[in-house]
Amino acid sequence: MSFLKRLSSMLTGGAPGERDRDAFWLYVRCDRCGEKLRLRVDRKFEIHPDYDQGGYVLRKEIMDGRCFQLMYAEIHFDPAWNITSRDLHGEGTFLTPEEFATPAP
Ligand SMILES: [Zn+2]
Question: How far is ligand 1, taken at its centre, from the CA of residue 24, in Å?
Fold first, then answer.
């Protein structure tokens, strides 16, 4: 691969968010209106050490922009950032990035 080709694939490769190392992406669907939400969570500011269970914990309020339902996510991570448990309060469901990208049938 030529230098220029490599350079341009470097510049265009991936979505802008993917080089954002502090970002954790949260995908949620509102089960009341079906709206899918993608939220950027900042690991530095929004995810905190979990002193009870070890690892990290994220607690986040999620406001759906269509029906304005307020949901509340709580996600626990181990020290290697693997999700160990997660809970979504409200009428919502966690999605995978693939499910988020797939249009509703
Ligand atoms: Zn909704």
Answer: 22
Intra-chain end-to-end CA distance of the chain, in Å: 40
**Euclidean distance between CA atoms 48 and 100, whole angstroms:** 26
Q: Which residues crowd ion ligand 1, with CB under 5 Å?
A: 30, 32-33, 35, 64, 66-67, 69
Question: How many angstroms does the Cα of residue 87 sit away from the middle of ligand 1?
Answer: 18
Whole-angstrom CA distances from 52 to 5, 6, 29, 42, 57 are: 50, 47, 29, 21, 10
Taking the chain (105 residues) in runs of 10, the rounded mean pLDDT of each run is 54 54 94 96 95 95 96 96 96 96 81
CA of 36 to the centre of ligand 1 (A): 8
pTM of the model: 0.76
Q: Per the structure block, which two tokens stand in for 92?
A: 């919502």
- Distance from Cα 19 to the centre of ligand 1, integer Å: 30
